[in-house]
Amino acid sequence: MKNGKAKVIETIGLKDEQGKAITGLPIMPGLVGSTNEVALTENLKLLSYDNNGLDPEGIALDSKGNFWICDEYGPFIAQFDKTGKLIKKYAPGNGLPNILKYRIPNRGFEGITIAPNGKIYAALQSVLDIEGKTAKTAKFTRILELDPESGRTKMYAYPIDQDNYKSPKDAKIGDIFAISNNKFLLIEQGKGKDNNMRNIIYLVDIKEATDISNIRVEGKELEFVADKDQLYKTIKFPTKKIVFDLRANGWKAEKAEGIVMCPDKKTIMVINDNDFGITINVKDSERKDVKIADYTLYADGSLKYKEKLAEPTISIVPNSEEERNTYLWVIKLPEIMKK
């Protein structure tokens, strides 16, 4: 970095075991990791699928120089060597707990980090929607622990700030970073019930937290438990306390999705996701205040709005200045953060 600007000096493309480039195209419906999405060109023409496709959301470097990347399609965790070639891929039912397949589409793993002891931790962006029934009832999202040496996993129930959202699924994790073997910096964010964005950095401690991997209540996963008091009697949640409220200190971007703590244990760096600096603009002469998600595209290329044929003008445009820029915040804490 020089004069406040960062320069890209090298890029490393991700490749499968055979050396073929991995794309961001969605996975074919019916396979593990599929979100049932289809990829389209800017002219709404169908693109192909990539059954090795990834939607990377977090990256961490291990002691051997290998890259660990988490993805929100699967959700998957993938280990790559220094050249970007895939070493191993973990998926729900294949190295990861099968329950993770119930992630809300495109709300899989949003952050990944490696603790000093070498264990991998990945945080789901949002609550699980088990069998389509828990997105509005779950009181926590899950933090996964993966021991790369033994392959054993654990899961912890990170308690979202439920009272601040209209629905549990509105809470989103932005990233996670290990500052010790049991303490993490974690970004929780999302639109609150007051319609204002929340972007808060928490210190989360799992030392006394319960591994919820095999815990059920009346034969059902804990996401089904509606009684908050019953849940707290059943398990111990990780503890959490606010470290820094980004938005209260001038943060304006919607998504804070990268966090690290520097070796001084006093400096935190946070970066946003600018969504490529673009957004989709929709204009419809017959309707007002429409969004692209309001329309259904049919195989013959036609668009319908609530079952009625529609002919909107759809274009890709720059998003707002606040959103299209990339911001790197450097936060100096008043004292060293204890492990």
Describe the model.
There is one protein chain. Helix content is 3%, strand content 35%. The mean pLDDT is 94. It has two domains: 56-274 and 326-332, Hemopexin (4 Propeller), CATH 2.110.10; 278-318, no CATH class. The chain is built from two helices and 21 strands. The chain is globular, with a radius of gyration of 21 Å. The protein is mainly β. A hairpin with a 5-residue loop joins strand 6 and strand 7.
Number of domains: 2
> Which structural class should the secondary elements be placed in?
mainly beta
H-E order = EEEEEEEEEEEEHEEEEEEEEHE
Rg is 21 Å
Widest β-sheet, arrangement of strands: 1-2-3-4-5
Largest sheet: 5 strands, mixed
Identify the CATH architecture of the largest domain.
4 Propeller
Shape: globular
Q: Give the end-to-end Cα distance, rounded to a whole number of Å.
A: 29 Å
Flag low-confidence runs: none
Q: What's the CATH class label of the largest domain?
A: Mainly Beta
- CATH level-3 fold name of the largest domain: Hemopexin
Integer average pLDDT: 94
Protein name: Esterase-like activity of phytase family protein
Domain Phytase-like: 5-276
InterPro entries: 6-blade_b-propeller_TolB-like (IPR011042), Phytase-like_dom (IPR027372)
Pfam family, one: Phytase-like
